[in-house]
Amino acid sequence: STEDVYKYTTMPLMDFCIEGNGGRATVFAFGQTGSGKTFTMEGIQQILVEDLFLLLAEDGGCSIDKTSVMVSFFEMYGGSIQDLLNNRNRLKILEDGKGEINVPGLTEMLADSPEALLALLEAGNLERTTHTTEANDTSSRSHAICQIMLRHNKTNKLRGKLSLVDLAGSERGSDTKSHNAQRRGESSHINSSLLALKECIRALSTNNQHVPYRSSKLTLILKDCFTSASAMTTMIATVSPGASSADHTLNTLRYADRTKEKGKPK
After folding, report:
1. Which positions ≥6 away from 227 have C-beta within 8 Å?
2. CB of 88 within 8 A of CB of 141?
3. Which are the contacts of 187, defined by CB distance < 8 A and separation ≥ 6?
């Protein structure tokens, strides 16, 4: 169930974020198109809303009286970055002199209650780019990144960040046989960015000193997962039960196993 997935993947990362030490936690769903990534991530979002404010109400590192909950939500569609909380404004990804990844102009909105946070998450999800494919009538055609940031009320210092990443699904040539030129272009961008992510996972699993996170905008955004000493990451592998999905399933489980064995991300 979604509750069980949340319990074992996201809840430990929330505890890590609210310690107030600048912890950066990431949850991303990985799998073929139509395997349930968006369903899972939206379910996790709904569950964490109440838990986050309950945890902040406790006397811990980030207390509700000193902490602002800020939300940003954007998607990577094709080669562009689009702000889902601000009229799909196009943005750029930049790396500063300290190696921090920034998205200048990205909207951060205050969520001062569980209801406000849920409303922002739902608004962002509604703005995502979806199209009909062979696998799904409302297939996600973009990678969506929701960032929930805990900032100090007075200094605006980042005290914790939780990133929820719903990746677009991988597709084989046979999955796109009836696609028009636009759908095929989308699939090409999706597969190339997922390939870059796989290369980063492979580099981590083999203890390669060079992790090629600059290979795509997706892996650049996820740089925290690969390089930050204050990062924790969970990968949710989604698979489809049909025999025709066996190749996809084996591929997904292979990279999930590599991620698990590395231990970081974990």
Report:
1. 99, 211, 213
2. no
3. 171, 175, 176, 179
Burial 254-266 (b: 16+ CB within 10 A, else e): ebbebbeebeebe
DSSP state, 83? E
Give the closest residue to 33 by CA, choosing from 182, 248, 242: 248
CB 9 within 8 A of CB 26: no
Would you tell me how many other CB atoms lie within 10 Å of the CB of residue 205?
Answer: 16
Identify the residue whose tokens are 């006397």.
59
- Identify the residue whose tokens are 């930049």: 94
Which residues, including other chains, have CB under 8 Å from residue 241's CB and lie 6 or more apart?
none
- What torsion do the CA atoms of 207, 212, 218, 224 make, to the nearest 10 degrees? 50
Q: Look at strands 231-238 and 158-166 and give their pairing.
A: unpaired
Determine the pLDDT at residue 92: 92
Condensed to tens digits (0 to 9), the pLDDT of residues 90-131 reads 999 998 888 788 899 999 999 999 999 999 999 999 998 876
Closest CA to 135 of 165, 167, 166, 174: 174
Answering whether pTM is above 0.70, one says yes
pLDDT digits over 38-84, tens only?
889 999 999 999 899 998 988 677 888 889 999 999 998 887 899 99
